[in-house]
Amino acid sequence: MFLSVLPALAKDAPPLQVLDFPATGTPVLRFTFSKFKPLERGGALHGYVTDMMAQNLTDKPIVGAQFSLFLYDKNKVRVGEDVFSLDQVGPRETVKLQTTVVASGAPASVSVQQATKAVKTVALTVNSVPQGAQLKVDGEDAGETPKIVKLELGKHTLSFSKEGFAPGNYPMDIGADDVSGGSVSYELGTAAFDSIELRDGSVLTGDLVSIAGMDVVIHVAGSVQHIDRNKIKRVLFTHREPPTPNLPPVAAPNP
After folding, report:
1. Same fold, 2-114 and 121-187
2. What per-residue string of b and e applies to 161-177 under the rule 16 or more CB within 10 Å gives b?
3. pLDDT 10s digits, 94-109
4. Is pTM, for the whole model, over 0.70?
């Protein structure tokens, strides 16, 4: 396929077909196809060559677009197809393309559809401190950390939440040059409660009230629990300000 820039549409032979794209709504491009000229025959399939014009109808440049070209015979049966691209077409500019297509019959009409490009994704390992946080990607649940997620190009928001910790968001911007295999780790905010990790792997979040001998008293979800000290693996205390003494107001001195 060859591409050249022309100042206007060719005014030679009458065109085979003129198409506006998209077919509904405000058109962005206008395609003008010349009649398909047959090449040397080669068995059941035949080669055809055609000149086509692509006119940008907007005031914005077309940076890159790919299209599928479908060929039909006089009975509206598809007999061939091709793919062509437009790139760097200026506002109101017209370009000429020449393409050769193999078809199983004589083309009598054409149609154009925008080709769907494969969406690039980047695999990313997402972790948190502590682990086991609920992860959301752009508002959608993605499971618990650590987690491997696939992100498309563009801006994203990773949201983290875990009981007993302040939630948080982490902005991500995936560029065209980014590759899979990267990682990100987000440290959750200061814990709102003490974390008591038991030896069986479970974690309680609440307020540790006291430790008396082998008895550990914890205030969890509005109730008081007594736990054997030997069942506790470790305790992570949250930072708290000391309580303000409830002292009576100072009386003003008598004059």
Report:
1. yes
2. ebebbeebebebebeee
3. 999 888 888 888 899 9
4. no
